[in-house]
Amino acid sequence: MEAERIVLRPTRRFMLAQRMNHIVPAVTLLLAAVEGLGSGHHKSLWLTALEVAVSGALLFVLIRDLRRGENAPAARVSLFDVIAAAVIALEAVHRYNPLKGFQPATMYFVIAAATLVLGLLHHRIAAVPRAELSDDGFSIRTRPFRPLRMAWRDVAAIERRGDVAVVRTATGRSEKANLRACANRDEVFAALDRRFAAYRRAQAPTAPEAGRGEDATAAGPA
Fold it and tell me: Of the ranges 10-14, 86-90, 159-163, which is most confident?
């Protein structure tokens, strides 16, 4: 069989948890900008209006992505991260003091640049969590480092415990892959079962070979 590659898509809950670190600053920035407009205490009208527009756009994109559901294909560019980078940059501008040297605003600019890069490279980063299966073995990478990688010849059994794949080796050791945050975990479990069953069938002796073995046993030593 041809090798399979399954990209692990995040669940809606996991996606929301990941994005909360950007949502809180966006809401804070939005409220501060609206308050500044209402009271007349703001640095500049265009900057305050931009803060309102960018913060509102970030919340709109979040709601749109959550409504699309877990089965929506991953976009090449994460619009959410791109707008989040703009929110962080505006926060940096808000905090920046030209009379100071190194200051917290400097780190905000650095974080904004890093977030922008993550958004532009979203199609590559989203493909890092994946499951790869071939005739020789499998690999499940739920995190950037330390994937679960094993050859079929070393696998004694594969068991599903809730959202966790438990792989028992021939030596009695157990390895686990937690797929709770993956929306398409059922697809991964099905592929594991199918590939492992195919490997065991390929390794099982054929009927003529089994018959020759029985004949040799029955004949015994001369």
Answer: 159-163
State pLDDT tens for residues 132-172. Answer: 999 999 999 987 777 899 999 999 999 999 999 999 998 88
Total-model pTM: 0.66
Q: Are residues 34 and 101 in the same domain?
A: yes
Same domain? 61 vs 118 = yes
Residue 20 has pLDDT above 90, yes or no: no
Examine the domain organization and report whether 73 and 108 are in the same domain: yes
Q: Domain for residue 217, yes or no?
A: no
Residue 218 has pLDDT above 50, yes or no: no
Tokens of 211: 């018959």
